Every structure is written in C-alpha cells, then in structure tokens.
Amino acid sequence: MTTPQEELLPATRRALTHRIAVAQAEGRAPSLVAAVVRGGRTVWHGARTSVDGHGPDENVQYRIGSITKTFTAVLVLRLRDEGLLGLGDPLEKHLPGTGVGEATIAELLAHSGGLAAESPAPWWERTPGSLRPELTDVLGERPLVHPVGRRHHYSNPGYTLLGALVEKLRGAPWEEVLQREVLDPLGLARTATRPSAPHAGGWAVHPWADVMLAEPAEDLGRMAPAGQLWSTTGDLARFAVFLTQGDEKVLGAKTVEEMRAPAAPVEAADVVDGAAYGLGLQIQSRGGRLLVGHSGSLPGFLANLTIGVADDVAAVVLTNCTSGPLLAGVGADLVRIVAEAEPRMPEPWRPLREVDASVLELAGPWYWGTHAFALRFSSNGEVSLGPLSGQGRRSRFRANGDGSWTGLEGYYAGESLRAVRRPDGTVSHLDLGSFVFTRQPYEGGDAVPGGVDPQGWRGIG
C-alpha cells in the first residue's frame, strides 16, 4: 500500500511534516501520527512524539472512537444493497420492541432519529460496557429528545441500535460481521475491537501543567458499534481509498457516493459553519473545498479521517490524548497542502466515439423566458444545462435510453428533460419538469404556455 514518499515534492513533504509538528507541539500531544493518500495510494507518512528516538509508524494502533460509526454504516448499507432492508424502513420493522422504532434506518444513519446524544449515566466512555448489557440500558427511560426526523442531533445510542440491527439480520455478533464483511475483504489487518502490540497508550494532559495522567481503556460492550475500534494510519488510509472509490467486495462506488451526500436536516448554525452529515460520514466545507470523513474521540485518544474527493487527496491523523490538537483542522490542512502544492492532473480531454445527430442538434443556447442557458454534451454521455452568466439553476443529466434525461443534482435532481418535436421532426422546445426552453427568448409559436404577445418585442415609444 505504501509507495515511496518521493512521489510528493520535497517542499510538500516538509510542509506536511511542519503542520503535524505544530499540531503536536501546540496541542501538547504525547504522540501524533499522520498519513496522506493520493491516487488510491499512501504517499506520505509522518509522526511526532515526546519520546526521544522513537516515532510511531503506520502500523501502531490508536483508538479511533467514532470513526467506528462509518464502519457500522457500511455494514448497514450492505444490508440495503442486498435487499434485506430499505433506508426508509422504520427500525421497528426489523428490530421491534426498542421503543424508538418509528425512526427510519436512514434517520439513524444520519443522526436525525431524535435520540439522545449519550446513554444514561454513568459516563459510558469511562465505564465497562457490562453496566449496559441490554438496549434498554443504552436507551434509558427518555431515549427521544427531539421529534423524529426533524433535526440533526448526534447520537451514540443511535449507532448502538444500528449495530443491534446488523446482529439481528446477520445472526452473528457485530464484531464478527465487521471482520468478515469489511475488515478482511479490505485487508485491514490492524483494525480490531481490541488493541494488539504495537499500540499507543491513552493519556490525559493536564490543562495547566505539562504532566500526564493515564486514561482507562474500557470495552464498550453494547456501545461498540458507536466507538470501539482501534486502527492505524495504514489501515485508515486503505479505508479512505474505499470511501472514495468503493470496492465491489464490500460496497460499490455508487453506494459510497451515496454515503458522502448530505442526508440530515441542517440548522442555521450548520449552514454558517458549512457542516452537514451523510450516511455515516461528516461533511464540511473549508476554504471552498468540500471534505468528507469522520472524527473520533475517546478518553486518551483523538482521531480524524478527511477526504477531499474532488482533489483525490485524503488524510488520516491520530493522537493519544484526551484533548489537544484540533484534528479536523489538521486533517483539512494536510489535504489542502497537497491539493494546492500539487493539484490533481485532469484526465485528458477526449472526443466522443460516436455522434448522435438528433442529440447534437440540441447543444447550444436555450432560453427559459429571458434567461439564457447553454446545453452541453460530454464524452461520458451526460448532458449539462446551466446559465450562460451569473448564478442560477444548473445540473448534470443522465440519459435514460429513450431520448430523455434525468437530473442528477440541484433543483433539477430527479426531474425529466426531453426534447419536444413538431410533427415534421424538428425541435420545438425543451421540456424540463414542465419548464419550457426555446431557442429564442419567448419564441413565437405554441411552445410557451400563455402564448406570446403577437406584437413581439418593442421599445418605448
């Protein structure tokens, strides 16, 4: 998996090393390890540590906390892709008797099921999972704190329910299903529910003094699907490739793309922050760059996985302290450094192999009323329609094979685009979800609903 670090320019490698050095020093982290992935391969690995003469490598395990949720989401989407459940199904259909069964599978994946953020006391991250042996112990007497489906409210118990759902439908413990269906197929040999040497110890760093306190490492029991896993930068780099490209042994490219799409309601603060949540993945906008991934924390550990899909760059950052470096910012910076210093090379432009004359004649300018748009065809067979100038509704469209196209994004997502022809076969106009696009602004004839003033265009006189 790891390729020679010379694939990145020396200045880029130094900038990456400098960024994690600043994070480790200013965050007062006992150790910090990071990796960068580009083009489906690990191209850089770095580490900083407070121990002289020693630096963790890509095989040292750290606890990754809530990045575990993304693994659990993968298991659930495998069930969906196999037809064993639907994302719109209420939980009650497959896992009855929880008391929160009206929440759908998708809502639980996107943290919009209305559930509480945490399980009842005592603090679950610092106590044995044996204290919460049943789902009722995890959910408590007041499991819902918001109306189902109305808002994004991060919920650890929600992912405990998803883990229980996996166990119910697979007839095996979550840990076994994860090993068989995700870890083994992707070759994640150093990712597990329990640590094995070499692994980092978890520490709390005193907020006002340069001293440390060892943190306990509890087995989370029922809460394991929300945050149990240990992993390495090497394994999470492979996982980042999977979340970018898909892998037919686990999930195809279309499904991992679905995971990366916003799926939860956003509030005003989320809009300002540029944050959203997909199906088991966090989504954020930083400096005009769309990033997906997940952060994680448990006593003694912080973790972050950040993917810049458009830039084809991903970063993994792990550290062994309860609080310290803001790893989401570090991960975003590592992606930015590579993306800006060594931008992704675009694929060569290639013309279409075949040209359909009936389709080619639709290319060019069209008018929705007086708004000018351009229709373009690309070599991948898609159509794009967007305003000629300024901001406005735009979308790509996928061919349906019957002369029509379906919108893929924005306002026109799911809407049908088709060319309406006259009896003689010539094109009258385009119909896009009932909107009429003509070759000239308010072109005469019978295409424009309501008709066109017979006096035509005129000035003031």
Please, could you describe this protein's structure?
This protein is α+β, with helices and mostly antiparallel strands and 461 residues long. It has 13 helices and 19 strands. It has helices at residues 10-26, 67-81, 91-94, 105-109, 135-139, 156-170, 174-186, 224-227, 233-245, 253-259, 268-273, 327-341, 357-360, and strands spanning 31-38, 41-49, 62-63, 203-205, 212-214, 230-231, 275-277, 282-286, 289-298, 301-308, 313-319, 364-368, 371-377, 383-387, 395-399, 404-407, 416-421, 427-432, 435-437. The strands form four sheets. It has an eight-stranded antiparallel β-sheet with strand order 12-13-14-15-16-17-18-19, with no helix packed on it. Strands 2-1-11-10-9-8-7 form a seven-stranded antiparallel β-sheet, sandwiched between helices. It has a two-stranded antiparallel sheet with strand order 3-6. Strand 12 and strand 13 (371-377) form a beta hairpin. Helix 1 packs antiparallel against helix 12 (327-341). It is globular.
Write out key terms for the chains shown:
19 strands, 461 residues, 7-stranded antiparallel β-sheet, alpha+beta
Summarize the structure.
With about 450 residues, the protein is an alpha+beta fold. Helix content is about 25%, strand content about 20%. The chain has 13 helices and 19 strands.
Describe how the helices and strands are arranged.
Elements: H1 10-26, E1 31-38, E2 41-49, E3 62-63, H2 67-81, H3 91-94, H4 105-109, H5 135-139, H6 156-170, H7 174-186, E4 203-205, E5 212-214, H8 224-227, E6 230-231, H9 233-245, H10 253-259, H11 268-273, E7 275-277, E8 282-286, E9 289-298, E10 301-308, E11 313-319, H12 327-341, H13 357-360, E12 364-368, E13 371-377, E14 383-387, E15 395-399, E16 404-407, E17 416-421, E18 427-432, E19 435-437
Antiparallel strand pairs: 1-2, 1-11, 3-6, 4-5, 7-8, 8-9, 9-10, 10-11, 12-13, 13-14, 14-15, 15-16, 16-17, 17-18, 18-19
